Amino acid sequence: MKRIFSLLSGLAVAALCATAAIAGNLEDKVVVYSTHGESMLEAVADGFEAKTGVAVEFINLKGELADRVRAEKANPQSDVMYGAPSSVYQELKGEDLFQPFTPTWAAKVDPLFKDKDGYWIGTIQTPVLMFYNTEMLTAAEAPKDWKDLADPKYKGMLVFRNALSSSARATYSALLQQYEKKGELDRGWAFLKAVDANTKRYYGSGSLLFQAVGRKEAAISFSVLNDVIDNQTKNKMPLKTVDAASGSPVITDAIAVIKGAKHPEAAKAFVEYAGGAEAQAMLARKFNRMPTLPDALDEAPAWMAKIKFKIMDVDWGALASKQSEWMQQWDAEVKDSAKDKQ
């Protein structure tokens, strides 16, 4: 799906605005490929529009984003990649698909959320937590850690996203890596197969997954924290998150300039704005997205400062070279494998 906006180079573009925009050095449009939803992209585009005069064309590609950028390497059709986990950016960086760019606010971002060489930088930190329907399970009955999901007592009580979801891909891979670090990768695959045996269904849509839990078709799942909060507050679902004993993966949603971009100056201006304090704070308020930029937290919802959870030790850089292969194996050998035997 596409939408064209008139944009200007702004706040984040402040440094660029004084020189590039006024001097007329920005191209007349910028093309953005993203995994973010249209409403969120529109909000960023509207904010950017209030600052300059560059048209923005964005396309939401969800799980197809990385493959599309790869396919267009010889002749890039996009200028900016916006959204998807840092592990995907690490992978594409290794394939020489990005142009390094350091926005003016980059120094304030924790090294956990950015590439040391400036090829990508995080704009959103996204914890992935288990949660359950409190009308179906008590806190005592609910899982306490990821390993508990393999317990036969939860058979038929789990629903998850499939591996086309970027957060699910990152989570399944992060769980496998915990076993790999101990030299027990085979046990990791056995664990995922045991979880599959307890899984009632995999969904291609996050909204369908939450509807299933809300209708009490299943009690337990995992999701990005902002979606859990949204469904608690806006949809009044009786959900409670689990602070997993081994920690929860924290995904960094990032942004990068595409190498060979046809509109490189407008691309830099968009990165500058989209990750700046103004845009990050706006996304926190309107869409419950947790900022990576400390300056934006002052204007973020109170729950972002209050919520506490243990962070899983994930080497996202090491995961980048394995995630695609692992998820192909998950799709071929794990997903619904228990059903095949019934």
From TrEMBL:
Residues 1-23 form the signal peptide. Keywords: Signal. This is Putative binding protein component of ABC iron transporter. It holds the Pfam family SBP_bac_6. It comes from Pseudodesulfovibrio hydrargyri. The keyword Amino-acid biosynthesis does not apply. Coiled coil: none annotated. It comes from the Bacteria. The keyword Transmembrane helix does not apply. The lineage of its organism: Bacteria, Pseudomonadati, Thermodesulfobacteriota, Desulfovibrionia, Desulfovibrionales.
